[in-house]
Write a structure and sequence with these properties.
Layout: H1 9-30, E1 35-36, H2 39-42, H3 51-56, E2 58-61, H4 71-78, E3 90-93, E4 96-99, H5 105-121, H6 123-137, H7 144-158, H8 166-175
Parallel strand pairs: 2-4
Antiparallel strand pairs: 1-2, 3-4
Length: 179
């Protein structure tokens, strides 16, 4: 099967592997600098996330410029995939969220959804589904993992007083093979 820009399944597996390696390296680099949510930022999310997710996900505001793109993004750009990390407000590397500014609650919520996705899918499966989703749908906003996080952060923003289980919603998408 061929995907957007002529990628075949073998190439997707290759680039998903590079993506997973990059995520793992960034997580290891930023983990020591990151800290859990402060209690006043933690409590409002307890109606949506398990305490375990909230206690283990760490956050770091990067002061020294944007996260550099991995080398393989240049290869992808040359093949018609125009993606750059510097356009993102925050990036979740498994259980470490790196941002360039203090995040508003809705963005924190969105990144916590990604932490749940990583937890449920595992690093390699998350990287594969993210990369394949981008190639299949052709836009960052349409990647199913992003669509799931956005739908959930929209529900949160619409009514922060109406609790739901993010873990259950992510699992539902997994069960329905929506990623």
């Amino acid at each position: 099967m061929m995907y957007l820009s002529g990628f075949n399944d073998k190439e997707i597996i290759h680039y998903a592997g590079l993506t997973a390696d990059y995520i793992k390296a960034q997580r290891e680099a930023y983990f020591p600098k990151a800290a859990p949510l402060a209690p006043e930022r933690f409590d409002p999310f307890l109606s949506f996330f398990s305490e375990a997710v909230l206690k283990t996900t760490r956050f770091h505001v990067k002061q020294e410029g944007p996260i550099e793109n991995p080398d393989f993004l240049k290869e992808l750009h040359d093949r018609g995939i125009p993606f750059s990390l510097d356009r993102l407000k925050a990036i979740t590397f498994q259980d470490v969220v790196v941002s360039f500014e203090e995040l508003e609650p809705r963005v924190v919520f969105h990144e916590l959804v990604h932490a749940v996705q990583y937890q449920k899918l595992g690093l390699k499966q998350f990287a594969y589904k993210y990369f394949k989703g981008f190639l299949t749908w052709g836009a960052y906003e349409r990647i199913p993992l992003e669509a799931n996080a956005r739908l959930l952060d929209e529900a949160y923003a619409k009514d922060p007083g109406k609790p739901f289980s993010v873990e259950a919603e992510v699992q539902k998408w997994i069960n329905e093979n929506r990623f």
